[in-house]
Amino acid sequence: MSHAVSLLRAARLARSAKPFLARGGFKHERCAGCRLVPSHCMCVLRPSVRTRAGVCLLMADIEPLKPSNTGWLIADVVADTFAFGWARTQTDPALLILLSDPQWQPYVVFPGEYAVPERVVHSVQLADTLGAETDKRPLFILLDGTWAEARKMFGRSPYLDHLPVLSLQPDQISQYKLRRSRRDGHFCTSEVAAMCLNLAAEHLAEQALAAYLDVFTHHYLQAKNQLPIAWEGAAHQRLREFSDLLPPRDVVEASQGEIAVSPINRFAAAGDRLNAAAAPWPLRSEGAAQRFRRP
Ligand SMILES: [Zn+2]
Predict the structure, then answer these.
(1) Which residue among 73, 84, 130, 178 is least packed, with the fewest CB closer than 10 Å?
(2) Which of 189, 191, 107, 192 is nearest to 149 (CA)?
(3) How remote is the CA of residue 31 from the centroid of ligand 1, in Å?
(4) What is the pTM for the complete model shown?
(5) What tens digit of pLDDT does each residue of 7-38 get?
(6) How far apart are CA 279 and CA 7, in angstroms?
(7) How remote is the CA of residue 46 from the centroid of ligand 1, in Å?
(8) Distance from residue 280's CA to the centre of ligand 1 (Å)
(9) What is the Å distance from ligand 1's center to 154 Cα?
(10) C-alpha of residue 32 to centroid of ligand 1, in Å
């Protein structure tokens, strides 16, 4: 199990002088795959969707260490998820390479009122002026931290300044709120990612991510309150419905075999295969599981 956020978490842990104790979190052993206590592990439920869109998480310092961080869920579901720690004085060269990779059209997802109007867009370009699918894949840059941290990241990252700012529209937000029956206007990072996937017309991934967040929330709260998991509850059933619609990974990979990939993407694809070996997702064929089994 080594997706972008888990690698970032491991790197951040290695730099910690003292062990990180999540506030109000559990003090017991945790599963390395889902960060929950083993009795409430949800690794078996992890869906993975091959999307055209990618997600780039810029994470505030301790964000990858928080067991409640939902960027982790995005990395579970969206195969091309990248994650970088943010620091004002240092920029990971791999982030700059990713942002200049011509296969991507990056969008900084942030409220439009904080950017100059020329930068603000409300939709994702899916087709060129002739109506053909653009060859650029959307890359959603999500600033993952508290609101104060996100504002700082937005204002003090000169390498983002030339990129369009994707501002989610109130009607999209309220539609989403209705569907998710949210009462306030606050969304976690994985909900923002789901809204971006919606704009990119990646509806299966959008809904799988939303269902997966519900399952995570259930497991997280039940673990915290030391209550059992409702495996047949509404959240699990909904996730199962979406996972039944996902094509087996090896079929998708075979159909994408001709696409040239950048070094960064090749790295992500290798991570995927490790995930495939670690996660017994019911839809993966036995053949694929055999091939990816680690020695
Ligand atoms: Zn687990």
Answers:
(1) 130
(2) 189
(3) 5
(4) 0.79
(5) 999 999 888 876 666 555 556 688 999 999 99
(6) 17
(7) 9
(8) 11
(9) 33
(10) 6
Q: What number is the average pLDDT over the span 110-114?
A: 94
CA of 33 to the centre of ligand 1 (A): 4
**What is the tens place of the pLDDT at every residue in 285-295?**
233 222 223 33
18 three-state secondary structure: coil
Cα-to-centroid distance, 252 and ligand 1 (Å): 25
pLDDT class of 258 with cuts at 50, 70, 90 = very low
pLDDT band with cut points at 50, 70 and 90 for residue 126: confident
How many angstroms does the Cα of residue 240 sit away from the middle of ligand 1?
A: 17
CA of 40 to the centre of ligand 1 (A): 8
Please give the distance, rounded to the nearest whole angstrom, from the Cα atom of residue 177 to the centre of ligand 1: 29
Report the alpha-carbon distance of residue 186 to residue 178 in Å, rounded: 13
Residue-by-residue DSSP string for 33-90:
TTSS-GGG--GGG---B--SSEEEEEE-TTGGG-TT-SHHHHHHHBSSEEEEE--SS-
Quote the longest CA-to-CA distance of the chain: 57
If one counts every other C-beta atom within 10 angstroms of the C-beta of residue 192, the result is: 22
CA–centroid distance, 43 to ligand 1, in Å, is 4
Domain ranges of the chain: 4-211
More confident residue, 161 or 67: 161
Ligand 1 centroid to Cα of residue 24, in Å, is 20
Which of these, 3, 144, 1, lies nearest to 62 by C-alpha position?
144
Task: Quote the pLDDT of residue 218.
Answer: 93
233 CA → ligand 1 middle, Å:
19
* Helix intervals (H) in the chain: 4-15, 71-77, 93-100, 147-155, 170-180, 189-199, 203-224, 234-245, 249-255, 263-278, 286-291
User: Scanning the structure block, which residue is given the tokens 């091939």?
Assistant: 291
Does residue 7 sit in helix, strand or coil? helix
